[in-house]
């Protein structure tokens, strides 16, 4: 398959892709689009950056019935930022049509959402908590779906959203198509997914390391005491175009961001303790490259597609090896080069071994050595 036209997509889709400069499907799109269009359930392992969002959005758009008064597709995603990103991709596909897409997530004015849900909505993109709110208030009806998508399915089914997702599933109709997309699908997640999917076809993007292959990974060994100094030395010697710096907790994000601001680094922060409007403001200025550094917790680890992120700094080693892959996948998008640097304190060694096992690679490392002038 060489062109999107070969899928017999509706003309407006081909045109709206073309106006974004997109004309050739990526491997995961090539594999999944024809099968999803036929109506099968699909369980797909595809890393972000492989084009997985369009892989589910295009068949959804292709199958929309313009006469239907119901919500026809529901996409559930773990973070608000991802919901915003998917909505924005969907809106680009819907340009010059009357297809309506409604993002539903916490932190937004619920009355404004209610008003919009009263109108015609074709596609809902939601985070689980706020969607459940609407389901309980009976202000959204998801019992006539053609397609349900669980994006980042491993997180949705496994790490904490499981009960919410199960309740959402109960409110949907049985005869819908279900698609699960995730960067990683281990056997535990697959077992859970099989409980509510109908004979799903399992698919993998041909090369699992598409994204990782284009990322130069490095480890800097440093004691906790000098971590901040080591980070600043890296930033000063590189002056990256756009970078995300990951910390383990909200408090550590606050602390590091404050220290960086004092040093006049162009930075801001993102974590779940901030108001929704503050989160959106920060993401917007980062996307527009008005700030150079985003200091964040793992809310920013998954699925976000921000063009131009050249560097990832793991100020703290992640607590799970999966998370490492998600974090560094924020760079090296769509074949661009990226650099990922992880600061490793002695207590982190066991986790590093686990990460290296997971990615099947020994990450080159160096020791941080303080320059003599600083050694007082
Ligand atoms: P995703 O993996 O869904 O996060 O997609 C990553 C980025 O790739 C998004 O910015 C898409 O707009 C872009 N993209 C998706 N499919 C294609 C394609 N076939 N050709 C070029 N860019 C694409």
From TrEMBL:
Residues 33-203 form the Helicase ATP-binding domain. InterPro entries: DEAD/DEAH_box_helicase_dom, DEAD/DEAH_RhlB, DEAD_box_RNA_helicase, Helicase_ATP-bd, Helicase_C-like, P-loop_NTPase, RNA_helicase_DEAD_Q_motif. It is an enzyme of class 3 (hydrolase). Residues 214-376 form the Helicase C-terminal domain. SMART domains: DEXDc, HELICc. Keywords: ATP-binding, Helicase, Hydrolase, Nucleotide-binding. GO terms for molecular function: ATP binding; hydrolase activity; nucleic acid binding; RNA helicase activity. Residues 2-30 form the DEAD-box RNA helicase Q domain. Belongs to the DEAD box helicase family. This is DEAD-box ATP-dependent RNA helicase CshA. It comes from Andreesenia angusta. The gene is cshA_1.
């Amino acid at each position: 398959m060489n062109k999107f036209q070969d899928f017999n997509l509706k003309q407006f889709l081909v045109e709206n892709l073309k106006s974004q400069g997109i004309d050739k499907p990526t491997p995961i799109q090539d594999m999944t689009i024809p099968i999803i269009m036929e109506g099968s359930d699909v369980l797909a392992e595809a890393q972000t950056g492989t084009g997985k969002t369009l892989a589910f959005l295009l068949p959804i758009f292709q199958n929309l019935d313009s006469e239907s008064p119901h919500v026809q597709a529901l996409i559930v995603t773990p973070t608000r930022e991802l919901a915003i990103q998917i909505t924005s991709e969907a809106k680009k596909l819907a340009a010059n049509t009357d297809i309506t897409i409604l993002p539903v997530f916490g932190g937004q004015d619920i009355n404004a959402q209610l008003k919009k849900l009263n109108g015609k909505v074709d596609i809902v993109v939601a985070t689980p908590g706020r969607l459940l709110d609407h389901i309980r208030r009976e202000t959204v009806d998801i019992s006539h779906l053609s397609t349900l998508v669980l994006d980042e399915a491993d997180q949705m089914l496994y790490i904490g959203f499981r009960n919410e997702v199960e309740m959402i599933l109960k409110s949907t109709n049985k005869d819908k198509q279900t698609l699960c997309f995730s960067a990683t699908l281990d056997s535990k997640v697959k077992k859970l997914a099989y409980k509510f999917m109908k004979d799903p076809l399992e698919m993998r993007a041909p090369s699992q390391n598409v994204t990782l292959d284009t990322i130069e990974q490095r480890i800097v060994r440093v004691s906790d005491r000098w971590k901040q100094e080591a980070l600043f030395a890296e930033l000063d010697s590189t002056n990256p175009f756009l970078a995300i710096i990951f910390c383990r907790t909200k408090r550590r994000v606050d602390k590091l961001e404050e220290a960086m601001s004092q040093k006049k680094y162009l930075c801001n922060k993102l974590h779940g303790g901030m108001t929704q409007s503050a989160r959106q403001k920060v993401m917007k200025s980062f996307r527009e490259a008005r700030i150079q550094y985003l200091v964040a917790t793992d809310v920013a680890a998954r699925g976000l597609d921000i063009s131009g992120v050249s560097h990832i700094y793991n100020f703290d080693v992640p607590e799970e090896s999966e998370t490492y892959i998600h974090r560094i996948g924020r760079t090296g998008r769509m074949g661009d080069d990226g650099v990922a640097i992880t600061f490793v304190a002695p207590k982190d060694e066991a986790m590093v071994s686990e990460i290296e096992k997971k990615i099947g690679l020994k990450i080159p490392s160096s020791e941080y050595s303080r320059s003599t002038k600083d050694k007082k």
